[in-house]
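Input record (Table S2, row 250):
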Amino acid sequence: MMKTQHWSASEYTRHAHFVSAMASEVLSLLDPQQGEEVLDLGCGDGELGTYIQDQGCSVIGIDASSSMVAAAKARGLTALQVDGHNMAFENQFDAVFSNAALHWLLQPESVIGGVHRALKTKGRFVAEMGGAGNIAALLSAMLAVFKANPDFGVFQNPWYFPSAEEYQALLKKAGFHVEKIELVSRPTPLASGLDKWLEIFADSIASQLSDEQKRLFFNGVKIKLKPALYSQQKGWVADYVRLRFKAIKL
Ligand code: BEZ
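Output record (benzoic acid complex):
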């Protein structure tokens, strides 16, 4: 069974600020309008949800993590602890927005179906997520270190990184018109380093390891990736690829 990913909102806010800082393109694509009802799916610590709220929208954030929901509420967002696979909203929102969350949800048809139900007719689903090829170097290094250490157990990939064609087909099947969908390479500087990235984002992978195994895992991944992802000038830069889209409920 897939291990659960645990989030610490305070660590996320401190070390993963790049997630919201690099969301300007998907926010432009959302183009929030005064008075709109918006659902922020996977709202995290609420930074982007409160930004959308500040544009005059009425926003509800949902997240599977209680720590993130508490942090989002502390920022002044209405936030609920909900698994994105099981949303129960109906014809309520002008827009569903999501940044860097959909790749954690491994049953995309359930998610897209729930988004479709949650939207009013002609409502829009605007999102950015990891797409095909996202963190390819990171993933292959993690996999190689697991292979070299059979005592680590089976490597379970907790992420879903679809191609534009695959996701477009799912959106169409659920009853959306896809206005725009693109896959964009976006190298992402990790100001807090690779150890912190692994600690925060690969928690579900590392949680099956002992402390000593975790140390070997982190070091092994760093050694493998240093030639490709580290430079003196830029520090660690992750090989992110974004899938960004806007789809309209028919
Ligand atoms: C991403 O935003 O692409 C991502 C973040 C953490 C783990 C995997 C992917």
